[in-house]
Amino acid sequence: MTRRISPEGLALIKQWEGCKLTAYKDVAGVWTIGYGSTGPHVTAGLKISQEEADQLLLADLDRFERAVERLVKVPLTDGQFAALVSFAFNVGEGAKGFAGSTLLKKLNAGDYAAVPKELMKWVNAGGKKVSGLVNRRAAEAGLWAKGSFVSSNTVEAKPAKPPVLTIDNAVKVATPASAILQNFTSGPAQIILAVAFVIGAAFLLWKFVLKQQEASA
């Protein structure tokens, strides 16, 4: 049975794709409806309900869920799986997209920490950085960091082990986060993110000190 995207991941895709219940031509002149559904069933004047749009999206996602499940050779949390399905749905699952990406190669080599930075390389359209893609990649990177279950084709789903709080772990969290921050242009958004990042790092350090004090007590 194909692994399905989590409700949180599905909500992220809906947010970024947007939904139109009346058929329209996209920038390439292709008749489209719902959350980007295309095909011979989509013609001029076609109208659907919100429920039908949701069902079309689930059907469209099936091949991307299968692709991520087939191509990724290491265990993934639900959040990580959902982030990759969203990414593949946006850039394509083929050789010019997810299947041929450096992201996939590094992930299959066990380099989980490289994924957020690799996601942020896919933010251009027409040779220019697109703020919408920057924001979507950042949202996917955030989803990548979440999730409580680990599973793969060969590993049964089980609760993930809580991470051990160490200085090294704090550095591992800081590295991909800083890569994401670098992709935001200067302005209020960057300042807010930078402040949030500093507060988060300070919190991790505080928790580390408390753990050390408890251990020595």
UniProtKB/TrEMBL annotation:
Report TM segments: 191-210
Instruction: Give the first-level EC class, as a single word.
Output: hydrolase
Q: Which reaction does it catalyse?
A: Hydrolysis of (1->4)-beta-linkages between N-acetylmuramic acid and N-acetyl-D-glucosamine residues in a peptidoglycan and between N-acetyl-D-glucosamine residues in chitodextrins
Which SUPFAM superfamilies does UniProt cross-reference here? Lysozyme-like
Source domain of life is: Bacteria
- EC number per UniProt: 3.2.1.17
Check the record and name the InterPro entries matching this protein.
Bacteriophage_GH24, Endolysin_autolysin, Endolysin_T4_type, Glyco_hydro_24, Lysozyme-like_dom_sf, Lysozyme_dom_sf, SAR_endolysin-like
MF GO annotations: lysozyme activity
GO annotation (BP), single: peptidoglycan catabolic process
| Keywords tagged on the record | Antimicrobial, Bacteriolytic enzyme, Glycosidase, Host cytoplasm, Hydrolase, Membrane, Transmembrane, Transmembrane helix
Sequence similarity: Belongs to the glycosyl hydrolase 24 family.
Q: Which HAMAP family match?
A: ENDOLYSIN_T4, SAR_ENDOLYSIN
* Protein name, UniProt field: Lysozyme
Originating species: Bosea spartocytisi
